[in-house]
Every structure is written in C-alpha cells, then in structure tokens.
Amino acid sequence: MADEKNTDVMEAGAEAPVRARVSPFQFLEQVNKERKKVTWPSFKETWLTTVMVFIMVGLTMVFFAIVDSILLYGQMLLIGAKRLF
Fold first, then answer.
1. Per residue in 35-77, pLDDT tens?
2. pTM for the predicted model, two decimal places
3. Cβ–Cβ < 8 Å for 61, 54
4. Which among 63, 64, 61, 84 has a CA at the least distance from the CA of 74?
5. For the chain, what is the radius of gyration of the CA atoms?
6. Who contacts 62 (Cβ-Cβ below 8 Å, separation ≥6)?
7. What is residue 10's predicted lDDT score, i.e. its pLDDT?
8. Would you tell me which of 9, 21, 45, 80 could form a disulfide with 41, CB atoms 3.0–4.6 Å apart?
9. pLDDT, tens only, 3-28
C-alpha cells in the first residue's frame, strides 16, 4: 500500500496538471450544463432567510449596545467621572 500513489494529492514541487484547452463554443456548452445543475431557492426560502438575517442583525445590535453600555459604565467608575445617566 505504501507503493500506491494518490493522484489527488500533489507532491511537493510537482507541477499542476495541465488541462486540455477547449474551444469557446465547447466552453459555453459546459457552462450551460453546469448552469442547469443549479437549484435556485424559492421565494418563500428567500423571504424567510431575509427575515432571519434582519432578526439576527437586530439581536446583534441589542447585544453590542448592552455590552457597550456596561463597558462605558465601568470606564466611568474607573476614572471617577460623573454619571452620564
């Protein structure tokens, strides 16, 4: 088993495999084949994902506002400043 070479892993200093060149027409055919494999999300999936992103942004804003307020309060205690609130 030690004598077998793994063709997926390149050895140090080995050159990358050379790919055969194709004509622009063949390239566009290949691109079209790959494009047909793509599955697009439905409107419902897109809407739910968008709503979830906005909810997470809102929760993150609240979290950092609370942390910022706590740190500001601690800083004011350290330097002995008058309360801002």
1. 999 999 999 999 999 999 999 999 999 999 999 999 999 998 8
2. 0.55
3. no
4. 84
5. 28
6. none
7. 58
8. 45
9. 555 555 556 667 777 778 889 999 99
